[in-house]
Queue: 3 jobs
Job 1
Amino acid sequence: MSCAAAPGLPDVDAVTPAVLVLPGPVSQEELPRLGDEVRALLETTGAEAVVCDVGGLGPPGLAVVDLLARLELAARRASGRIRLRDPDPALHALLDLVGLRFELERQPEQREPPLGVEEAVETGDPAL
């Protein structure tokens, strides 16, 4: 017995990244739980990376660097990685200073145009 395929394209779920929101200061007691969460997200979703939203961690310091290094280690042990979302520029600089490189979630660039470049239209210019 067989059933006929439904007409049209099959339904495909969009791949949404696994996200772990890191709120406020994280205590040493919470580190093992967060590492377990990273491993569980990688295993259950089959994703290659877990996006860690670090926007709410507050001012960066060595405790934040330690947390991110431990989460990266937990992710690598589960054959994955972590990717940072919304890092503070000071956190980015601190991670560079201690030699840790993390992939950042792609965000649209918001830059100013180069100095001395002005867009203007002269009345005699042909339309493109």
Job 2
Amino acid sequence: MEPHSFEQDGIVYEVRFERTPEGWIARIRPEDGTQAHVFAFPNGVGFDPDDVRGSLIAGCEAAVARIPRRAPTRH
């Protein structure tokens, strides 16, 4: 599946998807970051069978909203 990019709270994220026998793995990385957040989406409930990509993207956007943000640093 092709990668997907989206913006949330002023940060652009890139998502790469990988199909596994158990479902999908999504690696979400801020565009300017090196650290990725990995989420697993198992087969079954929650996927629109006519739009799996849309379901995965919606899940990734919801997951990013729940990732704790680091507190700003003072220099």
Job 3
Amino acid sequence: MPQMSPLMWFSLFILFSIALILFNQMNFFSFKQNLIKKLEKSTNNSKSLIWKW
């Protein structure tokens, strides 16, 4: 059974690393993050908690 050369192992490592990075990037950017709506809701909640003595 022939063995792989070190350069071939390195190219295989680079290939799988690029595939992993692309997969993670696609998963990260495929979901919309509604941060603005969450911030608006939190400010509305804080306004309603102000007590008027």
